[in-house]
Each structure stands twice: as structure tokens, then as C-alpha cells.
Amino acid sequence: MWKHSFNLLLCICLPALVLAQQKISGKITDAKKRPLPGVNVYIKGSYDGATAGADGTFSFTTTTTGTQVLVASLMSFQTQEQTINITGPVQVTLMLKAAMSELKVVTISAGSIEASNDKNNTVLKPLDIVTTAGATADIVNALKTLPGTQQTNDREGLFVRGGTGYETQIFIDGLMVRNPFFTSLPDMPGRGRFSPFLFKGTTFSSGGYSAQYGQGLSSALVLESEDLPARSSYSLGASVLGVSGGLDELSKDKKGSFGIEADYTNLAPYFSIAKPKQEPTVGPEIIGTSLNFRRRTSSTGILKFYGYGNWSRMGFKKNSIEYPGYQEQTDVRNQNVYTNLTYKESLGSGWRMNAGFSYSSNIDKIKLDTIQKSPVTNVHARSDLSQLRLMLTKSLGAFSQLRLGGEYQYAVERSEFNSYNANYVDNYSAGFAESDIYFTPRFVGRFGGRLEYSTVLAKVNLAPRASLAYKLDDYSQFSLAYGDYYQKPEPQYLRFKQDLSYMKATHYIASFQRLSSNYTFRVEAFYKKYKDLVKTVPDTLTNGTGYAKGIELFWRDRKTIKNLDYWISYSFLDTKRNYLFYPYEVQPDFAAKHTASLVMKKYFPKITTNIGVTYSYASGRPYYNPNLPESKFMSEKTIDFNTLGLSASYLTTVGKAFTVFVVSVTNVFDFKQVYGYRYSTDRLRREEIVPNAPRFLFVGMFMNFGIDRRQDVINNL
């Protein structure tokens, strides 16, 4: 009975519902009357809209009536708004003009390399990262092929322009990531925790970065997460290291999405065949999962959540250099959780809001043991970080902008060394103001500053920053940058002594770049002055000094040879430091004077295969020999670093899945790599610090249902 009632009600109401909906249709072209596909067209303040097809036409229905505003937007074009009166079907013709900001207007570039998916003249995209041979799909490893970075493969982190790995900070959607790498073991650096495909934009600032960000003495890696996916999809992966799977579901109204991923990695089977230098005792084994949620709250607002958790365990043992005939064993258990919630919205009158909250927790349980010789040492460490951030942006005319904001961080550091505890809590707050002022479309200045306060240091700092850029023509520009940068000492020092000061670095940068859709050329010179670095001898104080200066070159060519993409980078670095236990200023043990990389990718259409080659070089690094007099401190150097990586990706379809088969090998020719030397306490014995796995072979298959990333690989060339 109820079915008949429902059908009757539907028949009665359906004509009214149909009459209440009006059709909006039309065509969109550029200034030369060429159709523009992919334009987003919608009624302002509603969810009614469509995307223009290949011929530039669009059509959708709406229940709104009366005077409304029709909006048409497309990246690289000026957004157009047209008033329409909806009393019946409406047909319009729209023309979008190329955005001045994309074609003619200068942008700030000194010290920064943009890598946004939304621009054609990018330096590195996510697919560049995963297809760079030898990078093993790790963001930081791929960035090591760019100028300014060091090939420090014996320790974790991104070492930039004479700075340590700690001096580079990583941000996701403006919020700092406290533990971006998996916990490392001695001489075995931890890998980055993030997939490149999570991010639509990457800005690698090797110096002179914006006042929006702080607590990075040398560099900032700013990652911007993806918005809504184009369509629903799911993926499966299997390799010699483990398995993975993921789901990305787009809602029916195309205004929201959610995604979940999980992966399991176990290197024990691989290491049972390819024996590493140190003998595995546990794993290495990693279980990881992540969750994301995105929702458009309006035509101008979006809410995004991203969180992950991973659990790892690993252990190795080796012959003891301190006690000949005995073995040393190190075991690590790690738990890490990271969450990130952001909200963006237009407030009207040219104002935009960007708010965010993040919480992360990292727990390490470490056991150190000289087997049958000394008692086991237990180290427990936990880091918790909660942070809030708010930034308001105001448009000032056509191009200029004003940014105002602040952030607050609540950090809790706990550590236990056997029965000894060393803990502290820090309340860190900061405010910043910065403006991009366009004197002309070809001449821009960025001026701002950052004010910071830390309760653990009980000190305030003020960091002024300024940049200038002048566009010589549509493709070339010259830039200058200056700034002061402050950073708290590492937690390992603050746990035991808290009357320290901020470390400080002052940057001076001059750069020239020429960017087009097929070529990229950059040359950059810099000078960096360090002050108040941490010294541990004769006491822990912040009175260390140093400097770094150099010149860097980058060239990328996507056109000269069909289907070949390659880039060359070179860095010259002159740097010295007097910090930690150093008796005077010398070249530190993580810095090489010369570094260079050549990355090549060739696509073969007939066999749908991409071949990648990466060669990296670094001159020898200093190392500490305790048998030499102080006058020869750090005077000896390691052999030069060389490595050649190869990769091959075969693109095909398996059933309904877009599939990529991948094979990659690091250090193909087994070049000997020595990062330094370790000496026994009595100085009678030493051992080389070398890679635990001199060569690594990866074989994997990745299947994606819904989104064809094979075409992305082709388009990337």
C-alpha cells in the first residue's frame, strides 16, 4: 500500500520539481575564441555547477531563481563573474582572459624552488619524485638531486647549504611536522614518512623563506596537501618489501571525499638473501595506515583532515670496535601518530582565512647492548606536539597581498636513560606579518617579520625578512633576499640545560632564473652567517659561530630530445663551523665542497616503458681523527662519493586496473662509499662508516582502479 502512495505522491510532485529546476548552459572560450575545456562553472553561493567539456560547452540545472552570479574559473586564467537573471533557461557565452599573474607578473624566487602541480613551469612534481632513479620514491632523496643539498646518506634529514638536518623544517599545510622521518639506527638514516602523491604542491626553500614559517635555521620544505580527487579510485601494491592498498572515494555531490590507506613492510626476507653489513635481529618491519577527509564547505571554502599512524621495529648487531671479540646490538621500537586539520575560507572584501590544528606523538624504545659484556641500556623517549595556526590574507589591488598570522605550539619532551629522567615542556608562540608589494607587474618586494617567544628559553626574538624580484622578460627574472632566522637548540641539549639562547642564521641570496614550459635554468649565490650555535665543550653553551657561502647551478631540459627529460645540478659550498666539540671553525663532517647530480628519464612509447638514470657525486667530507693534534682537527677527508641508480617502469593494463611494474637498483656499479670513520676509546682501532646495504634492488607492481597514472607519467615528460 505504501508503495502505491509513494508513487502517487511522486507523480503529483514531479512536475513541480521539474518546473522548479532551470537549465544553465553555454560555451567558454579564450581570448582567441578557442574552446576552453575543464573550466569550473557554478552559481555563486550554491552547489549547482558543472565542468566545461572538451569543446568548451557546459550545462547544468539549478533551483535558484532571480538575479544570480555565474562564476567561471580555470587555473592560469582570470576568474570571471557574470550576473544572470534566472526566470527560465539561460544560455551564456563566456570568455576568459589569461591571468597576468601567470604570464607577466614577477614572483618571489630567491632561495625557493616551486613544485606545484598547478603550474607548467615546475621543477619537481610528485611523479618526478617517484620516477627519479635511486630516490626510492622518497621526497627527501629526490630533493638531494637539487642544488644546495648534501648527499648525507649516513644520517637522516635534509642537509642544506652548510646546515644540519635539524636545521631544515618540514611543514604540511603550514603546520610543522615534528618527526617527519622514521627513527634511525646508527649509520642507517630513517626514511621519510610521506608519499609524494599526498601533495599537490611542494616548495623547497633552501634559504630566504617566508616569515610565515619559523624555527628552521637553514631551510623549509613546505608541502601542500591535495584537495578533492577528480574521481573515486582504489589501489593495490606489492613488492619485494611488502604490500599496500588504498581507497579514495568521491562523494556523489562531488563536494567531499574520504580516503584510507594501509601498508605493511618487512625487509627480513630481502635481507635473508641480500646480506647487509650488519646482521638483522628484528625486522625491519613497519605497519602503517592513514586516513584523509575533505569537504567543500562553500564555493570558496574547504575543510581537510589528514592523519596517519605507523609502528616499526628493527634491530641489528655487529662486531664491537670498543670490545674486540664481542658484538653490539641495537633494537628500536617506534610508534608515531600525526594529525592535521585545516580550514580555508573567503571572508569577503578581499580577505581569506587559513586555520589549522595539528597533533603528533612519537615514542621510541631503544635497547643498546654489548652482548655478554655490559648491562643493557634502555632509552625511552616521547615527544608530543600540539599546534594551532591562523593566517589572514588580504588582497591589495590586482596582485599585492598582506598576510597576518600567528601560531602556538605546546611541546612535551620526555626521556628516560635507564633510571635517569630528563623532561621539559615548552610553550612556543609566534606572530608574523608580511606583504607582497607590486611596484609594477615586473617589480615586486616582499617585506615582513616574525616575532617568537619560547618559555623553555624565556627569550624573545624578532626576525626581519625582505626579498626583491625583477622580471627581465616573460621568462627571466633576477631576485635578492635577506632574512634573520632563529631556532631552538635540539631537544637532546634542552633536556639537560635550559638556560640556552636561540641559534641564529642570517641569509643573503642573489639569484637569476629562466623558466619556460620546457626549460629551466637557475643560478644562485648565497652567504649565510651563523651565530649562537650549540657548543658542548667545555660546557653546553650557545656561543658557537660559523658561515656558509657558495654558488649553485640548475638546468632542466624537456624538449631537445623527444621523450627525454633530464636535469643537471651543481653546488659549490665553502662552509666552516665552531660548534659542539670543535676547537675552532672548520669544515663540518656533513659538508662536501662539491656536489653534482645528473637525472635522466626516457620514455619509449612503443613499449610504454620509462627508463630512469641518476648519477650523484660529492667530494670527500672531513672526519675526526682523535690521533691527530688539535692543529689538524678535521684535516683528513673521506674518498669521493659516487652512486648510479637505474629504474624501469612498464605501463600497462591488467584487467580493469592501470598497472605499473617497477624495477630499480641503487648504486649499480657498487661504488665504494665511505661516510667517515669511528674510533675506539683507546684510539687503537677504527672502522669505516659505510652503507648497511651498498646496493638495493626493488621490484614492485602497483595497480590503480579509477585513475590512470600511466598517462600522468607520459604527460610528465
Tell me the strand percentage band: over 45%
**Quaternary state of the chains:** single chain
Number of strands: 39
Helical fraction equals under 10%
Estimated radius of gyration: 28 Å
- Indicate the low-confidence ranges by residue numbers: 1-19, 100-104, 115-123, 713-717
Q: What is the average of the pLDDT values?
A: 87
Distance between the termini: 63 Å
Task: Tell me the overall shape.
Answer: globular
Structural class: mainly beta
Number of helices: 7
The main pleated sheet reads as: 22 strands, antiparallel, barrel
Description of the structure:
This protein is mainly beta. It contains 7 helices and 39 strands. The strands form 6 sheets. The chain has a 22-stranded antiparallel beta barrel. It is globular and about 90 Å long.
In short:
This protein is mainly β.
Draw up the topology in text.
Layout: H1 2-20, E1 22-29, E2 40-43, E3 49-51, E4 57-62, E5 66-73, E6 80-86, E7 90-95, H2 100-103, E8 112-116, H3 126-130, H4 139-143, E9 168-172, E10 175-176, E11 199-205, E12 219-225, E13 233-239, E14 242-250, E15 256-266, H5 268-273, E16 279-296, E17 302-319, E18 327-348, E19 351-370, E20 377-396, E21 400-417, E22 420-421, E23 424-440, E24 443-454, E25 459-471, E26 476-487, H6 491-494, E27 503-515, E28 519-535, E29 541-557, E30 564-578, E31 594-604, E32 609-618, E33 622-623, E34 636-637, E35 641-654, E36 657-666, E37 676-679, E38 686-689, E39 696-705, H7 709-715
Parallel strand pairs: 1-7, 9-12
Antiparallel strand pairs: 1-4, 2-3, 2-5, 5-6, 8-11, 9-10, 11-12, 13-14, 13-39, 14-15, 15-16, 16-17, 17-18, 18-19, 19-20, 20-21, 21-22, 21-23, 23-24, 24-25, 25-26, 26-27, 27-28, 28-29, 29-30, 30-31, 31-32, 32-35, 33-34, 35-36, 36-39, 37-38
